[in-house]
């Protein structure tokens, strides 16, 4: 590679020729032309290989066509290379600021027409909203400039290069550059021109930039305008028709704040926007302003004087087919979905999103932490030696990034915090970014999690802090020091508002403990909530050789280094399907709390500032899940932060069924994000009459037997079940294994809270070591009486002396069959167990068991530390809908606290099972699946699961919690399952 080229690619300064200062992304009536659409495209494997193509006469007819915006690795069916996924690691040698000569380089060309009218324009500007990672631009063969900063906007003045009529623009994009060292976010590496390209006519006398800073104070609003325009562009007029504002400034010196006597504030809950225009004779800019004041007072973060609690998510821009290419319709639907699930905040991890996203956030209502495009996490590997964050050679690049970030989006009321970036160590360049933001925007605080000791940021922020640690941060115990802090630094950090910029790692099945974090927020006002990691999976739609579609993750494209399925850690699957964790989140974050007290219910409004006028309250009573009465609950208006005590309706209590009251708070009218009647919050009250469980009948007269017999509808051979209700059924066999979840496979260090965890070793490894997935059985005895059968089994694994004794007693009880299984571990088990259950195989027989109807907790799967979304009721689902299609197959489908279960085959009922509570009143859960835990554990993707005709029913006396150990704390001790004796008792009726 020529030294000139090499110097260019490894230049730490952010390109040359892009216009500065950066400016807002504005809606203007000045003419513009989108250059999106098909471009000619040629890909070269190195930065040098390609012949020059910038000359206007160059013949590109032999080139391919590619859509702009797009990522070239997602176009061309693999012909243009493949996506690469890494979390922390650089997919190239750590040799900053250099990158390998093998540097895929995309050359783009297209013609465009410059309208004749544009000759009036003072300047013609070419804007790129996003190009990964380094690019150079030529227009009509004239070099225009170069830029890096993939998720940032760059504008170039092309006035002297363009002419009326036909023009040609050429762009060369290198996948790797010095910038790649500071864009090491945990996501796919996706090169190309992936955001809009726009040609803009800048009129003489136009408005270069405008910033309408707004504030709100007790009903009054203020607009403080900053107008950037030539002196000759004045007068400038600000109009907000709805507020009667029409303010003309004759000169720049006259521009002054405008006070408005009466406005409605903007909040994430009531995102009140006012249409505004800022105009000169030559140009008119349209903005939507929201009035709000952001401030930090002591350790409180306030908007409009009230404390904000972030029920937030980390949002990456990702789509299974488009990658980071923005699709407004999809983004709007995604944001509406967030609102429906009680999400009120977004951290734009870890770069500015497409600028339109912020318009949507203003409109739909979110508190936004807008993050700069910056991460250097790969330097962790070398103990942060050479980290750009503290290297003067990179200072300008850092400052350029934050300027472009803040300037582009400064007008949005939704943005309440600026974030410098993510996981870039610490250093003077970050401090310089912060200083620049403070000088430019005195109002909005600066966040950066890596500033552990709080030297240059305004908010104390952590990621994946455990519940006890979060509690410690919230409390005022001056003796306890905070992570990486001295006592004095701890005091400094405790003087600031705290957020969890990431918590509750939602990878695969999990996380547990949302509710524990939530509870802390209500006890410690310094804690302002947090942002779940993360909103959605980043799967890329791919196909197996036989054409089966699937969502690919790291390694599926043959990457040299990759981080597997760590990119699949969202509450939404790649195909937009909410996982049970999102339902759990919704229940935990619900903005209305119900506390039942005798014949009354206290209804608290936990919102920031909105009252309950948008809500209606409905109630219903069910007997064993069957509705018997329903109505509306009269609830007086409850203002934010207040409660109201409301009498409950009369509840008809059934003597022989469970009686449950359910109250829903629903939208009284349709919102922009949900229809009328959408459930915002729910609570249940158990009003069941007490009914004792049938006692275990003591039997005598057991005698040894070969065990080949019939009891009721059950047939046995050699003591083992072979038929039930006229169908082949085998089991029960002890099942202690579950297909490890991503959290079970995690070995992160945050285990100090749980004696069940071994530091550095995953629970899944311990289970495999103990052979839980390969248990074998030795039958010790078979005995019977006239109407009962009893077997005793010793269950254990190869190469292990540990065992479990399993006694199974089948008996006829009236017209039902009872199965009672006593499970008793030997001494010596030291780890947690994933489950204590029994498994039945239900082979196809005449027709497969393919559905269930149950009374218990539902409708979604639930686990001991994720039970808040589950309600008691009657539910039904087909077998495939009982499992979640996690990108990497794993434990799924457990429905807790079962009372009655009916298995179905098509429309026909096959078997009715009643779960009898154990002597502590505990009820088992069930899982109905097409696959065994062992089969699920062996599959890396859903398409690897074998075709089966057998269904599997597992009844669990208990399941282990979920935790968050894929990245964060292990299962909380209370929800960790220790080996222990358990009883499972089922009553079975054939149908
Ligand atoms: C954090 C990081 C995120 C993501 C997450 C794990 O450390 O900021 O970008 O990698 O861990 O999924």
Structure notes:
By secondary structure, the chain is mainly beta. The protein folds into five domains: 3-202, Galactose-binding domain-like (Jelly Rolls, Sandwich), CATH 2.60.120; 209-282, Immunoglobulin-like (Sandwich), CATH 2.60.40; 296-536 and 571-585, Glycosidases (TIM Barrel, Alpha-Beta Barrel), CATH 3.20.20; 592-686, Sandwich (Immunoglobulin-like); 703-990, Beta-galactosidase, Chain A, domain 5. Helices cover 11% and strands 36% of the residues. It contains twelve helices and 59 strands. Strands 43-48-49-50-51-59-56-55-53-54 form a ten-stranded antiparallel β-sheet, with no helix packed on it. α2 runs parallel beside α3 and α4 (395-409) runs parallel beside α5 (428-440). The radius of gyration is 32 Å and the shape is globular. The N and C termini lie far apart (78 Å). Beta-D-galactopyranose binds at residues 87, 186, 350, 422-423, 463, 502, 505, 533, 566, 569, 967.
In what range is the share of β-strand residues? 35-45%
Per CATH, which architecture of the largest domain?
Distorted Sandwich
DSSP, total strands: 59
Task: Please give the alpha-carbon distance between the first and last residues.
Answer: 78 Å
Report the bound ligands by name, code or SMILES.
Answer: beta-D-galactopyranose
Shape, per Cα inertia axes? globular
Instruction: Return Rg in Å.
Output: 32 Å
Strand order of the largest sheet: 43-48-49-50-51-59-56-55-53-54
CATH class group of the largest domain: Mainly Beta
Largest sheet: 10 strands, antiparallel
Unreliable stretches, pLDDT < 50, 5 or more residues?
A: none
Q: Which fold name is given in CATH as the topology of the largest domain?
A: Beta-galactosidase, Chain A, domain 5
- Count of alpha and pi helical runs: 12
What is the count of distinct domains? 5
Structural class: mainly beta
User: What is the overall pLDDT average?
Assistant: 96
Helix content: 10-25%
């Amino acid at each position: 590679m020529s030294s000139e080229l090499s110097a260019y690619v490894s230049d730490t300064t952010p390109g040359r020729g892009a216009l500065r200062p950066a400016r807002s992304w504005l809606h203007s009536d000045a003419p513009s032309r989108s250059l999106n659409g098909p471009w000619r495209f040629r890909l070269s494997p190195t930065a040098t290989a390609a012949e020059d193509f910038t000359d206007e006469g160059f013949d590109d007819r032999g080139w391919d066509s590619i859509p702009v915006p797009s990522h070239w690795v997602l176009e061309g069916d693999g012909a243009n290379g493949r996506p690469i996924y890494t979390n922390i690691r650089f997919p190239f040698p750590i040799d900053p600021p250099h990158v390998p000569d093998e540097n895929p380089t995309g050359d783009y060309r297209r013609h465009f027409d410059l309208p004749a009218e544009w000759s009036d324009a003072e300047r013609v500007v070419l804007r790129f909203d996003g190009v990964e990672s380094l690019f150079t631009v030529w227009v009509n063969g004239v070099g225009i400039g170069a830029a890096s900063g993939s998720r940032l906007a760059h504008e170039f003045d092309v006035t002297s290069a363009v002419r009326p009529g036909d023009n040609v623009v050429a762009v060369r994009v290198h996948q790797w550059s010095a910038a790649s060292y500071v864009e090491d976010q945990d996501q796919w590496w996706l090169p190309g021109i992936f955001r809009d390209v726009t040609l803009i006519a800048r009129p003489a006398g136009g408005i270069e930039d405008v910033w309408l800073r707004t504030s709100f104070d007790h009903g009054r609003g203020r607009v403080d305008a900053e107008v950037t325009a030539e002196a000759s562009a004045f007068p400038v007029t600000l109009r907000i028709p709805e507020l009667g504002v029409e303010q003309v400034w004759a000169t720049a010196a006259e521009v002054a704040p405008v006070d408005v006597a009466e406005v409605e504030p903007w909040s994430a809950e009531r995102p009140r926007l006012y249409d505004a225009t800022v105009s000169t004779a030559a140009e008119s800019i349209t903005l939507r302003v929201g009035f709000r004041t952001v401030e930090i007072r002591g350790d409180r973060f306030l908007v409009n004087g009230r404390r904000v609690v972030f029920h937030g998510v980390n949002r990456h821009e990702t789509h299974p087919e488009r990658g980071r290419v923005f699709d407004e319709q999809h983004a709007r639907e995604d944001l509406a979905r967030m609102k429906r699930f009680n999400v009120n905040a977004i951290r734009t991890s870890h770069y500015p999103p497409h600028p339109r996203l912020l318009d949507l956030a203003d409109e739909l209502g979110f508190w936004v932490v807008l993050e700069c495009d910056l991460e250097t996490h790969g330097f962790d590997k070398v103990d942060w030696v050479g980290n750009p964050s503290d290297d003067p050679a990179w200072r300008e690049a850092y400052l350029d990034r934050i300027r472009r970030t803040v300037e582009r989006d400064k007008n949005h009321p939704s943005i309440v915090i600026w974030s410098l970036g993510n996981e870039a160590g610490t250093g003077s360049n970050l401090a310089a970014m912060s200083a620049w933001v403070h000088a430019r925007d005195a109002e909005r605080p600066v966040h950066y999690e890596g500033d552990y000791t709080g030297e240059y940021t305004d908010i104390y922020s952590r990621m994946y802090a455990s519940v006890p640690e979060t509690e410690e941060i919230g409390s005022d115990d001056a003796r306890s020091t905070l992570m990486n802090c001295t006592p004095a630094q701890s005091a400094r950090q405790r003087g600031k508002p705290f957020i969890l910029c990431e918590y509750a790692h939602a990878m695969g099945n999990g996380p547990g403990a949302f509710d524990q974090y939530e509870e802390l927020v209500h006890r410690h006002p310094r804690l302002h909530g947090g942002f779940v990691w993360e909103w959605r999976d980043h799967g890329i739609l791919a196909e197996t050789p036989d054409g089966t579609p699937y969502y690919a993750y790291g390694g599926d494209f043959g990457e040299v280094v990759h981080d597997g399925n760590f990119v699949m850690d969202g509450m939404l699957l790649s195909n937009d399907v909410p996982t049970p964790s999102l339902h759990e989140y919704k229940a935990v974050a619900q903005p209305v709390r119900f506390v039942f007290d005798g014949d009354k219910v206290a209804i608290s409004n936990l919102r920031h500032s909105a009252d309950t006028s948008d809500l209606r309250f409905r109630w219903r009573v069910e007997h064993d899940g069957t509705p018997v009465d329903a109505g509306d609950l009269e609830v007086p208006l409850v203002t934010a932060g207040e409660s109201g005590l409301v009498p409950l309706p009369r509840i008809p209590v059934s003597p022989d069924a469970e009686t449950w009251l359910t109250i829903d708070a629903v939208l009284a009218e349709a919102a922009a994000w949900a229809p009328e009647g959408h459930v915002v919050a729910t609570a249940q009250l158990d009003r069941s009459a007490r009914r004792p469980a049938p006692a275990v009948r003591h039997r005598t007269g057991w005698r040894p037997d070969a065990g080949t017999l019939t009891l009721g509808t059950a047939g046995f051979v050699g003591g083992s079940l072979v038929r039930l209700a006229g169908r082949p059924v085998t089991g029960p066999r002890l099942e202690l294994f579950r297909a490890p979840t991503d959290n079970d496979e995690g070995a992160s260090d945050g285990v100090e809270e749980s004696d069940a965890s071994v530091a550095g070793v995953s629970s899944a490894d311990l289970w495999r070591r103990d052979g839980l997935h390969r248990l074998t059985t030795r039958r010790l005895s078979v005995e019977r009486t006239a109407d009962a059968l009893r077997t005793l089994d010793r269950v254990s694994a190869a190469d292990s002396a540990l065992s479990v004794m399993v006694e199974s007693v089948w008996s006829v009880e009236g017209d039902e069959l009872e199965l009672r299984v006593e499970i008793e571990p030997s001494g010596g088990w030291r780890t947690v167990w994933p489950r204590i259950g029994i498994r039945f195989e239900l082979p196809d027989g005449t027709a497969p068991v393919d559905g269930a109807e149950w009374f218990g907790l539902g409708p979604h799967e639930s686990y001991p530390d994720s039970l808040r979304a589950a309600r008691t009721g009657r539910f039904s689902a087909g077998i495939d809908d009982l499992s979640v299609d996690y990108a990497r197959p794993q434990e799924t489908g457990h429905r807790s606290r079962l009372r009655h279960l009916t298995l179905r085959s098509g429309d026909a009922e096959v078997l009715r099972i009643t779960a009898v509570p154990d002597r502590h009143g505990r009820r088992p859960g069930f899982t109905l699946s097409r696959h065994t835990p062992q089969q699920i554990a062996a599959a890396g993707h859903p398409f690897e699961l074998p075709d089966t005709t057998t269904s599997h029913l597992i009844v669990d006396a208990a399941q282990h919690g979920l935790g968050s150990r894929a990245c964060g704390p292990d299962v909380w001790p209370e929800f960790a399952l220790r080996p222990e004796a358990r009883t499972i008792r089922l009553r079975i009726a054939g149908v």
